[in-house]
Design goal:
The protein is of the alpha/beta class and 271 residues long. It folds into 2 domains: 161 residues, 3-Layer(aba) Sandwich (Rossmann fold), CATH 3.40.50.720; 95 residues, ProC C-terminal domain-like (ProC C-terminal domain-like fold, Orthogonal Bundle). The protein contains 12 helices and 8 strands. It has an 8-stranded mixed β-sheet with strand order 3-2-1-4-5-6-7-8, with helices on both faces. α7 packs across α12 and α8 packs across α9.
Length: 271
């Protein structure tokens, strides 16, 4: 039987709602509470029947002392919001999902609180297929396990050894779903441009990418090996890849996109 846990999620938008709902589903004995400036909208984002209580103000949480607190707020509003919650997080493990806000800055904003972890989840946590990167300093085994319990409920978890690496992880996993959607969009547009009905082109592009992702997850071979497996000598796939992988094509575009996202993450950290 699992120990009773108390989780508080501050900011119950798409990300916060997914984290709260996933944890509540995976840990039925836990007490999960969310705070949001718009409780009605927040409740609408939670699956029906999920055991998450939603409130507007910290004053409504009389007697509730969380073990773990997740700040699921945008970096632009996080700084102004944290001071209000200093009394509430005393003694708790604090996790922030705000891109670019360093551990040192988080600790400072929380009045010197030291049990702080940075997390970079991505949007597929909404369907519990997320990828979350974590970084913390001098964490106890119990704190590391508590972090893993939250994010493994909505996907996979990986820790990085240095804080600067979480900015790179942001550019890959945090932004990566948008890159994937951009590829699906461009495949569909290209199909329509070659003569397919647009609706059919969108369906073909979406399901092809979904199926390929599932194959990558379950097959055991890496992406390079699976790519080679699709190709036949002098066939259509080989011709298409040759055009896409020219020096100024896909490799340059992807590298440039990741680099730009990485730089922006570092800019946020320096702000």
């Amino acid at each position: 039987m699992e120990t009773m846990q108390k989780l508080l999620v501050i900011g119950c938008g798409n990300m916060g709602a997914a984290l709260a709902a996933g944890f509540a589903a995976a840990h039925p004995s836990a007490q999960v509470v969310a705070l949001d400036s718009d409780p009605q909208r927040a409740r609408a984002l939670l699956p029906a029947g999920v055991a998450v209580a939603v409130y507007r103000q910290p004053s409504e949480l009389a007697g509730f002392r969380p073990d773990t607190v997740i700040f699921a707020l945008k970096p632009q509003v996080l700084g102004a919001a944290l001071a209000e919650f200093i009394p509430l997080v005393a003694g708790a493990l604090v996790i922030s999902v705000a891109a670019g806000v360093s551990l040192a800055r988080l600790s400072e904003l929380l009045g010197g609180h030291r049990r702080v972890v940075r997390a970079m989840p991505n949007l597929p946590v909404v369907v519990r297929q997320g990828m979350t990167t974590l970084y913390g300093e001098a964490l106890t085994a119990a704190d590391a396990a508590a972090c893993a319990a939250v994010f493994s409920a909505v996907g996979q978890v990986a820790w990085v050894d240095r804080e600067v690496q979480i900015d790179v992880a942001t550019a890959i996993a945090g932004s990566g779903p948008a890159y994937f959607f951009a590829l699906v969009e461009q495949l569909a547009l290209a199909g329509a441009g070659e003569g397919l009905p647009p609706d059919l082109a969108r369906r073909l592009a979406a399901q092809t990418c979904i199926g390929a992702a599932s194959l990558l997850q379950h097959d055991g071979r890496d992406a390079a090996a699976l790519k080679a497996a699709v190709c036949s000598p002098r066939g259509t796939t080989e011709a298409g890849l040759a055009a896409m992988e020219m020096p100024d094509g896909l490799p340059r575009v992807v590298a440039a996109g990741v680099h730009a996202a990485h730089l922006r993450s570092r800019e946020l950290a320096a702000a």
